Amino acid sequence: MSDTTLGRENAVARSASNLYRAVWRWHFYAGLMVLPFMITLAVTGALYLFKDEIDTSVYSDLKRVTVAQTKVTPEVMVDAALANYPGTAVKYLDPATPGSSAEITVASADFGKLAVYVNPYDGSVLGALPDRGTIMWTIRYLHSLKYFGDGARMVIELAGGWSILLVGTGFYLWWPRGKKGVVTVRGKPKNRMFWRDLHAVTGLFAGVFIVFLAITGMPWSGVWGEKVNEWANGSNFGYPSGVRVDVPMSGEHLDHVAKTSWSLEQARLPESSAAAGTPIGLNRAVETFDRLGLHRGYTVAIPGKPTVVYTGSVYPDAASQQRVIHLDQYSGEPLIDMGFADYGLGGKWMEWGISVHMGQEFGLVTQLVLLAACLGIVLLAVSAGVMWWKRRPTGSLGVPPLPDDPKAFRGLIAILALGGIAFPLVGISLLVMLALDWAGTRVMRPRFA
């Protein structure tokens, strides 16, 4: 072998080694950024996968009833709820199954909003909870960081973007490069090799789900999700193109009166014609929704003003069965009737992804697969922490070493730039981290074991 050939091979090896160091360094940074959030999201997400099962079990005295032959009308149920909890009825939730109770949302100046549970067969009031006060609503708010204000939605976007970076750099570090890839766990728990292999093997399985969950979680983010929603549904009064909206429209949004799908957060409510006569009432509205084939378990927003409509909306486990119908409260005529089939291609994919993300699509199979993924994410984070602890230098954070040739960062930075363009908030955070990394290396070079 000539000296020229040997020199070229050495140069290639050094270049590969430098790129490996650069990727390893940013894999470490990505882990610092998101692993604490990933553990929280994985644990709360795993619980939320079984929201119906958990809530039905915990609140069985409120949510389950004995099936009988005849039912009382929705207005009788509303009257019973108001007799026990005076106020204004604002929503009626149709029983999803024969053994389910009805839920009436009552608003009062004294106690805020309450979810009052009523037996649909005899009209008896079973009890009440604060509106969205169940354990699963608490878990959902923890998962979405809603308890921490609107700024937390930006944290979701950062965590999602950095999670994708974590998976991409991790896959590069695992890639065999001419050797056998690690697909089994070697050694024993006292050895660092055991934890490194456990981390790599778990990452191969969980990484695919991390990317999927990060992308499908982005619709709830503060910058990307909001802007994409405006772009996708900002025209035609917030409805997908092709949906008939040639009726008087109000300035109120559907999401403000009834929790709706991501695709319809910008959708505006049509107006009822107050000159049309006497309101049809809740009984006739429910009869109309049933006749139009609205999926069981739908919610009816009860109009509280002369120009407001009856809105029936349902978002079952299967995204394809989503549907929203607005009825004129005087004539009972459907003003807008739209469902999943009316969404654009992007909206359909987004709604389907959200449905899978929440463990709804395909039933128990999805729940169990995503449960395994959530457990894998926790194991991934734990193994990363143990692996770092075993190799950390005394008195140092243990940041992986800088490459000998700074040019090794060029390719990595180009990839990061593409991600920053797709997710602007993540791009800004990448620039901040680059600046901090550059400043840190000028002050002190980290020591390694």
N-to-C terminal Cα separation, in Å? 36 Å
Helix/strand class: alpha+beta
Radius of gyration: 27 Å
Number of strands: 10
Overview of this protein structure:
There is one protein chain. By secondary structure, the chain is α+β, with helices and mostly antiparallel strands. The chain is 51% helix and 12% strand. The protein is built from 14 helices and ten strands. The chain has helices spanning 3-48, 51-58, 60-63, 74-84, 135-143, 152-174, 192-217, 224-233, 254-257, 281-291, 345-357, 364-391, 408-422, 424-443; strands at 88-93, 102-108, 112-118, 125-130, 249-253, 268-270, 299-301, 310-314, 323-327, 334-339. The strands form two sheets. It has an eight-stranded antiparallel β-sheet with strand order 4-3-2-1-7-8-9-10. α7 crosses α11 (345-357). The longest helix has 46 residues, at 3-48. 35% of the residues are buried. The model is unreliable at 1-13 (pLDDT under 50).
